[in-house]
Amino acid sequence: MKSATLHFEFHIPITALAMFLLKTWRASAFGVYGYLNFTRNGFLENSKKFKPEDMEIRLDGKNCVVTGANSGIGFATAEGLASRGATVYMVCRNMERGETALSKIQSSTGNPNLHLEVCDISSISEIKSFASRFSSKDVPVHVLVNNAGLMEHKRVTTSEGFELNFAVNVLGTYAITELMLPLLEKASLDARVIMVSSGGMYSSPLTSDLQFSNGKFDGVEQYARNKRVQVAQTEKWAEMYKNKGIDFYSMHPGWAETPGVATSLPDFNKWLSGKLRTSGEGADTVIWLALQPKEKLVSGGFYFDRAEAPKHLNFAGTSQSHGKIDSIFDTLRSMLVSHDSKK
Q1: C-alpha–C-alpha distance, residues 207 and 227, integer Å
Q2: pLDDT of 43 strictly over 60
Q3: Alpha-carbon gap, residue 18 to 13, rounded angstroms
Q4: 90 with 115: CB under 8 angstroms?
Q5: Segment 92-121 mean pLDDT
Q6: Per-residue model confidence (pLDDT) at position 274
Q7: Residues noted as catalytic
Q8: How far apart are CA 235 and CA 248, in angstroms?
Q9: pLDDT band at 188 (very low <50, low <70, confident <90, very high)
Q10: In sequence order, what DSSP letters do the residues of 140-190 get, joined into one string?
C-alpha cells in the first residue's frame, strides 16, 4: 500500500508577507532593545554618566504646567519641579485626586506655589475652557509638560466623536500646546515644551490613519502609533517656532511602574515586577530637560536618560514615515476648527 502524501499550498501576496515580516522585526527589535535599556537596570547603568550638578538648577519664578499630574510620572515631575522652587500648575482630570496629589507635594516640598487646574484632556471643549481660564491669569509659561496619556484596549468614542486614545494622546496634546503658545511666547527665550512619549513608538511608523479606522482595532498598536505622532509633532513644532524662542523636546521615560502601566498592561507589569523603574526614575529626564540651558539641548530632539536618543531602530522602516506630519497637522487643525463650528 502506498502511503498518502498531503500537499498544502499557501498563496500570500508578497506585499502582505513583507509587511508581516517587517512588523514582526519591529516588535522583536523593540522588545530586545527595551529589555536591555528601558528597565531599572538600564537606568542604573546609564545614571553612572549623570552629572549631579545638572539637577541642582533652581526654577524660582518659573511657571510650569504639567498635565496628568496626580499620579505616576506626572506626579513625580510636578514634585521635582516644585522642589526646585517652580510655581506648578497641575492639570488633572479628577478634582479629588488632584487635590490629594497637590497636598502631598506641598507637604513634601514645602512649596506653597502649587495650583490645581481641572481639565479632561480627552475633551476639546474642556481644553479650550482651561486655556481661556489660564490665559486670563496673563502669566508667562516657561515649561509645558505634556504628560497626560492613556492606553485603552477597546475602541471607545468620546462624546465629541473621537477615538479615545487619539483624543488624549494626540488631539488633546496638540490642542493644549497650540492654545498655550501665546503664554509660552511671553516667557521668551526660556520657554520649552516637553512631550512625554514612549519607546513604544519604535514599533510603529507614522500613519495618517489617526483613529485606527482601518483593520481590527488594537489598543497597544494605537498607543504606539500615537506616541510616534508625538515625536513627529515635536519635530514639526520645533521647526515652526524656531524663531519664537520656544523649544520642543520629546522623551521616553523608560518602563516605569506606574498606576497607568498596572492598569493598561497588567501582564507586562507582572512579568517585569521588580525590574521596572520607579515613577521618579521615569520623570528624571523630564525634569532634566526642564532644567538644562537650551544650548545643551536640541529642539525637536528625542531624549532618553538625559541624552539624545535615536528616533528609529535599524531596519525598522519607520524613518521615511515622518514626511506625513504636514498632512497630519492639517488634519488636527481642521478638527479644532470643525469643533468650533459645531458649537
Answers
A1: 11
A2: yes
A3: 9
A4: yes
A5: 98
A6: 82
A7: 223
A8: 8
A9: confident
A10: --SEEEE------SS--B-TTS-BHHHIIIIIIHHHHHHHHHHHHHHTGGG
From start to end of 114-244, where are the E strands? 114-118, 143-146, 192-196
Give the dihedral of Cα atoms 312, 212, 276, 302; nearest 10 deg: 30
| pTM reported for the whole predicted model | 0.90
Say if residues 192 and 300 touch (Cβ distance below 8 Å): no
Cα–Cα distance measured from residue 208 to residue 328, given in angstroms and rounded to the nearest whole number: 6
Given a contact cutoff of 8 angstroms between Cβ atoms, the answer to whether 229 and 210 are in contact is yes
Q: Look-up: residue for cell 545614571?
A: 47
Share of the chain above pLDDT 70, in %: 87
d(CA 162, CA 210): 10
Instruction: Tell me which residue has cell 489617526.
Output: 210
Sort strands 307-308 and 302-304 into parallel, antiparallel or unpaired.
Answer: antiparallel
The amino acid at residue 338 is S
List pLDDT tens digits, range 285-328.
Answer: 999 999 999 999 999 999 999 999 999 876 556 767 898 999 99
Residue type at position 319: S
Rounded to whole angstroms, the Cα distance separating 163 from 116 reads 27
Cell of 108: 513634601
DSSP, residue by residue, 91-114: EES-HHHHHHHHHHHHHHH----E
Quote the radius of gyration of the chain (alpha carbons, Å): 21
Contact assessment for residue 26 and residue 203, using Cβ atoms and an 8 Å cutoff = yes
Could you give phi then psi for residue 7, rounded to 5 degrees? Answer: -120, 130
The CA-atom distances, in angstroms, between 222 and each of 21, 26, 51, 217, 249 are: 19, 15, 36, 8, 22
- Are the beta carbons of 65 and 89 closer than 8 angstroms? yes
- The number of beta carbons lying within 10 Å of the beta carbon of residue 125 is 12
Distance CA 89, CA 69 (A): 9
Dihedral angle of Cα 152, 158, 161, 164, to the nearest 10 degrees = -20
Closest CA to 175 of 307, 333, 308, 38: 333
Q: Which grid coordinates belong to 166? A: 487619539
The set of cell numbers assigned to 212 is 485606527
Rounded distance, CA 84 to CA 111, Å?
Answer: 9
